[in-house]
Every structure is written in structure tokens, then in C-alpha cells.
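Subject: for your reference before the review

Hello V.,

The reviewers asked for a structural picture of the protein, and I figured it would be easier to keep everything in one thread rather than splitting it across files. Below is the amino acid sequence we used in the manuscript, unchanged from the supplementary table.
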Amino acid sequence: MSERTFDPNTWLDSFRDSFASVHKAQQEGFKAIERMARFQYAVAGDYLEAGIAQTQAALTAKTPVELLAKQAEVGTQLGEKLRSRAQEFSTLASEVQGTVSSFATETATRASASAKKAA
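And here is what came back from the structure prediction:
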């Protein structure tokens, strides 16, 4: 027979220690999803504003040359906004990737420490 006894408190403490970082990662994941939703909402707003500006240009232009000039200006403005949004997305993705990798490392470290402690 084995001389080891099952201690549920030790097992629960080990479980809590191992998965504390998972809980933190889950919270950070929800924050990242919220940030991504806000980002996508902002991009949709940029497209909506560009569409409204295009429509206003079509309604107020007196000549085809004036219409083309206004449409080119609106397109350039949208391009600049989308360029800045792409940079914002890149920053957001880098931050999320760093957070996920730090939580994965922390979880692996805690799990191995718990395994060593239990052995």
C-alpha cells in the first residue's frame, strides 16, 4: 500500500495557484475583445462618414470636375484615417500577443512549481 494520503486542500491550493493566471488571462481576453469591438466600431464609423461625405459631394457639386475633386479629397481623407487605424490595429495586436504570451509563461511556471511541490 501507498503511504501517501489524499489531501484535498493541497490539491485545491495547487489548482488555484495553477489557474490563477488563467483567470487573469480570461479577464484580459475580454478586455481585448472589447477593445477590438470598439476598434471595429470606429472603422465602421470612418466608412460611414466617408459615405456621407461622398453623398454630400454628389449633391452639392455643380460640375463633374468639382465632383471628382471632392470625391478625391474624401478618398484621400479616408485613406489617411485607415492608415492610422491600421497602425492602431498593429499596436493593439502586439499588446494582446504580449499579454497572452506572458500569461502562458506564468501559467506554465506556476503549474511546474505546483507539480514539484506536490511530488
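For the response letter, the relevant points are probably these. The chain has a mean pLDDT of 85. Residues 10-118 form one domain.

Happy to draft the paragraph if you're swamped.

O.
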